From TrEMBL:
PANTHER family: NAD(P)H NITROREDUCTASE RV3131-RELATED, NADPH NITROREDUCTASE
Protein name: Nitroreductase family protein
CDD domains assigned: Nitro_FMN_reductase (cd02062)
Domain Nitroreductase: 28-223
Pfam families, per the entry: Nitroreductase
Domain of life: Bacteria
C-alpha cells in the first residue's frame, strides 16, 4: 500500500492530497471477482493491517478465519445463497431512499453474480471477537450509579444489550476498515457483508468457530473483474452538523 504526504501538510489541491484519500475515494464494493487465487502473503498483509487497527479498550481479542480451500468454499456456497436470497426478499427488495432504481438494479445484479459464483471466491475473511466477562465490583456499581444518576442508570439497564454490541463492534470494525483499505491499496477487491448472521450458527459450525465467539462479517476477497472507480456519496455539506444538530 502506498504512502502519501502527511495529512498535516496537505492542502486543498489534488496534487498535494494524501494518497490515502485517493484510495478511500475509489474504494467501491467490488463483488465480481476473478477466480485466480490470492497469495497467502497478501492475505497476511490484509490481516496485519486489520491488527494495526484501533481496538476499543485496547483489548485486542480479535481472531480472523481465512478461507481459501475450494472444498470449504463449496460447502459455504449454499449457506451464502440462502442468506442472500433472504436479504433480497426482505430488506434488499427495494432501493434505499435517494438511490436511483437503475443504479440499485446494477448493485443487485452484482450481488446475484457474487451469489451464483460464490464457490469460485478466492478468499473469505471472517473477523471474530469474544468480549471478556465484565469485572465490576459493588463499589464500582455504586460510583457508576452516582455518576450517571438514577434516570440514566435505569436507561442504561434497558439498552445494555445495544451498548455491549457497540462495544464489541468498536473492537472489530476499525480493523475491518483497515483491511478493506489495505485490499484496495494492493489492487484487491473486497466488500464487507453481514448477511451470514441470518445463519450464523450454521456458518460457525461449518468453520469450527467456537460457540462463544461472535462473528462480525464475511469479507470476500479477490482480484476484481472490473475497474475501481469513484464512490458516490452525499456531500459533506448535507451530512455535517456543526456544534449542534
Amino acid at each position: 500500500m502506498t504512502t502519501g504526504t502527511p495529512l498535516a501538510g496537505a492542502v486543498a489541491d489534488d496534487a498535494a492530497e494524501p494518497s490515502l484519500f485517493a484510495t478511500m475515494s475509489t474504494m467501491r464494493a467490488m463483488r465480481r471477482l476473478r477466480p485466480d487465487p490470492v497469495p497467502d502473503e497478501l492475505l497476511d498483509q490484509l490481516i496485519q493491517a486489520a491488527v494495526w487497527g484501533p481496538s476499543g479498550g485496547n483489548m485486542q481479542r480479535y481472531e480472523y478465519v481465512v478461507v481459501t480451500d475450494r472444498t470449504v468454499m463449496a460447502e459455504l456456497a449454499p449457506l451464502w445463497k440462502r442468506c442472500v436470497d433472504a436479504y433480497l426478499a426482505t430488506t434488499g427488495k427495494y432501493a434505499p431512499e435517494g438511490m436511483d432504481e437503475a443504479a440499485y438494479g446494477r448493485m443487485v445484479a452484482a450481488i446475484e453474480y457474487q451469489r451464483d459464483h460464490f464457490a469460485d471466491t478466492p478468499a473469505l475473511i471472517i473477523p471474530c471477537y469474544q468480549f471478556p466477562p465484565p469485572r465490576i465490583e459493588e463499589e464500582g456499581l455504586r460510583i457508576y450509579a452516582e455518576a450517571l444518576g438514577a434516570e440514566a442508570t435505569e436507561r442504561m439497564g434497558r439498552i445494555q444489550e445495544r451498548f455491549s454490541a457497540l462495544a464489541e463492534g468498536s473492537c472489530v470494525y476499525p480493523g475491518v476498515q483497515n483491511l478493506l483499505l489495505a485490499a484496495r491499496g494492493l489492487g484487491l477487491a473486497a466488500n464487507i457483508t453481514i448477511w451470514h448472521l441470518f445463519l450464523e450458527a450454521e456458518w460457525k459450525a461449518a468453520l469450527g468457530i467456537p460457540e462463544g465467539m461472535n462473528t462480525f462479517a464475511v469479507i470476500p476477497v479477490g482480484w476484481p473483474q472490473g475497474n475501481f472507480g469513484p464512490v458516490r456519496r452525499r456531500p459533506v455539506s448535507e451530512v455535517v452538523h456543526r456544534d449542534r444538530w
